[in-house]
Write a structure and sequence with these properties.
The chain has 448 residues and is α/β, with parallel strands linked by helices. The protein is built from 17 helices and 19 strands.
């Protein structure tokens, strides 16, 4: 399998390699388990939506140091020949347990747990955090937009302002998982099978002598997808021109599908444009809105009952503007069969290989999560699944619509106060995990 990411194994932090040289030199190759989790949700998030697992799994399968990579590392004069030989034959041979993509999760829940020989699990840390951070952050932001839109379609317009070209692909993929219906990103459409969509820019309208000519030319070229941008000069005059063009195109059997507003007071403009369209006999023409949208602006539009039919959402979703990163921690929780943990103030971790057990109330809504050890058999649905063993995938990458459906089901299962950010649930810790934590702390303090 070849990952679309095409990631070099050098995309790691230097200290992952310096630590690993020491591990190899001291023959510290026993299995190590690292747990990736979010210590604390961003201030304006009451849940997170897991995304990015399959790009990560594919990247792990392809993770190699090329001859050029090794030559560069040798040129740094930091690494011993024995360690470079180790890297020459490096393959990820570990086991990966993870939350399936589209799963809602909360603080302290493991998103991924990786068990592999210590140097392997250490070297892939940067890759693991990077991929899951961006897709989960964007998927969560997109999910909030979908919730706010209350059934109205949301489309990804974020490619041009994401933080890098690759980031635009992650954002398109993550937003589709979260419930967006399409993307403007053509490469994302090719790679992931996401429906692509697009209308026109103001520059297109400006390049013609007048709006009518611009609209007519577009309609004749794209008779099945005629959406007209009406606010280049004056939105209401633009709407009137769109109506004139709709009449002329209808004579050719072409139906204008919609008009788009990208600026101004879109609530009032949408009402007036709707009035004009209906009066002219075009109740079927939809009104699309874009421009600086996020879940808060969308909620304002929806609550105002403005006649907006769909949203194009770009910058604020594509970079998850109000929560652009997650407090993800990738921590050693077991090595050579013994539990491990970190005791730094404010950064305590729970030891051991873990599982999350989810419970629902009688109506089928989320009730609580309990974090326990993987071997426990607690009440609830165990969320983490084994996706990779011995460096080999245990299942095929599911179709993206299947992941999208799972995300929709997870979001629907949340009580209204969590969906709307009014309550952030805490995760229960099992008695057995609490006991292991106390035992491990006592053992560590004896040798301090």
């Amino acid at each position: 399998m070849s990952s679309w990411l095409n990631v070099s194994a050098l995309l790691t932090d230097l200290y992952e390699l310096t630590m690993s040289q020491v591990y190899v030199e001291r023959d510290m190759l026993a299995p190590a388990t690292f747990s990736l989790f979010v210590r604390k949700l961003p201030q304006n998030r009451s849940f997170l939506l897991a995304a990015g697992l399959w790009p990560l799994l594919e990247a792990l399968q392809d993770f190699r140091f090329s001859e050029e990579d090794l030559a560069y590392l040798e040129s740094l004069k930091l690494f011993k020949p024995t360690f470079l030989d180790y890297l020459k034959n490096f393959r990820f041979t570990g086991e990966v347990w993870a939350l399936p993509e589209g799963t809602v999760f909360f603080e302290n829940a493991p998103v991924v747990e990786i068990t592999a020989p210590l140097p392997e699990a250490q070297i892939v840390e940067t890759l693991v955090i990077n991929i899951l951070n961006i897709e989960t952050a964007v998927a969560t932001k997109a999910a909030l937009c979908v919730i706010a839109a209350d059934g109205r379609p949301c489309v990804d317009f974020g490619a041009r302002r994401t933080q890098g070209l690759e980031a635009s692909l992650h954002a398109a993929r993550a937003s589709y998982i979260a419930g967006f219906t399409a993307t403007s990103n053509v490469l994302a459409g090719k790679l992931f099978g996401i429906p692509v969509t697009g209308t026109m820019a103001h520059s297109y309208v400006e390049s013609f002598p007048n709006e009518e000519e611009a609209f007519l030319a577009f309609g004749r070229n794209f008779p099945e997808n005629t959406v007209l941008l009406i606010d280049t000069y004056d939105p209401l005059r633009g709407a009137e021109k769109a109506i004139e063009v709709a009449r002329r195109l209808s004579e050719r059997g072409i139906r204008v599908r919609g008009v788009r507003l990208d600026s101004g007071n879109v609530i009032e403009l949408a009402r007036e444009v709707r009035r004009l369209l209906d009066k002219a006999g075009f109740p079927e023409i939809k009104i699309f809105v874009s421009g600086g949208l996020d879940e808060h602006k969308i909620a304002e539009i929806v609550s105002s009952r403005a006649p907006v039919d769909a949203f194009g959402i770009g910058t604020k979703m594509g970079v998850s503007a109000d929560a652009p990163y997650l407090d993800l921690a990738y921590k050693l929780v077991e090595y050579d069969g013994k539990p491990r943990l970190k005791l730094s103030e404010g950064k305590v971790t729970y030891p051991g290989r873990k599982q999350v057990f989810r419970r629902f109330d009688p109506s089928g809504l989320f009730y609580e999560d309990e974090l326990g050890l993987r071997e426990e058999n607690l009440i609830g649905n165990p969320l983490l699944k084994c996706f990779m063993r011995d460096g080999r995938l245990l299942m095929e990458n599911p179709p993206l619509p299947e992941i999208r459906k799972k995300a929709a089901e997870n979001l629907k299962s949340l009580p209204e106060d969590i969906r709307k950010g009014q309550r952030t649930p805490s995760t229960r810790i099992s008695e057995k995990l609490r006991a292991l934590y106390s035992e491990t702390v006592e053992r560590i303090r004896k040798v301090l």
